[in-house]
Amino acid sequence: MTEIPALIAAFTTLFIIIDPPGLAPVFIALTQGMSAQQRRAIGIRAFLVAAALMMVFLFLGEAVLGFIGISMDAFRIAGGILLFLTALDMLFQRRQARREDNAAEGQAEHHDDPSVFPLALPLIVGPGAITTVILLAGEAQSAADMGAIAAVIIVVLLIVLLAFLAAPAIERALGKTGLNIVTRLLGMLLAALAVQFVLDGLRGFGIGA
């Protein structure tokens, strides 16, 4: 996992799942009417909460699976299927609509501070991100590997924070059409990665080459 290709694959998977460009317009909607200082504080708070949650799933997720008797290969197959469904949502734009619905719900319930809900959970740390982190942890073979994965997670979350802080500029630069194109491209890449997770799980059960 400490090899560069493995780290790039881990970064790519997490980046696609969390989708910082897709979160930017949602962040704008949730913080509409707030000052730049308030937006910055909310973005930083969401980053810190999401990072803490990700570390919990990274270091304890596999132990929880073992406790309830689920093997990593079974989780790889289930996780790959879940990620593939997420990819389909991205390709057909259903994911962004659901995010906007969650954002509207969170804004109604927590108008003053949407940093924990819905930003950190479930928009950043959603089912796909949780699944990906546990799958990556399952591939780690040493403490160095776990440290490398943790570093990748922090880098991706820092990109999310930068997307939040630069959300207005990103939205103006890409426009709605640009965001749709980026989301669909990322969806296609995620579909391929999801199939790879399923194949790895099947291989663990001795099915396939």
From TrEMBL:
Native source organism of the sequence: Yoonia rosea
Statement: the UniProt record of this protein carries the keyword Membrane: yes
Record's keyword terms, sorted: Cell membrane, Membrane, Transmembrane, Transmembrane helix
Family, per entry: Belongs to the UPF0056 (MarC) family.
Annotated membrane topology: Multi-pass membrane protein
Protein name: UPF0056 membrane protein
Entry GO CC: plasma membrane
Cross-referenced InterPro entries: Multi_antbiot-R_MarC
Superkingdom of the organism of origin: Bacteria
Cell compartment(s), UniProt: Cell membrane
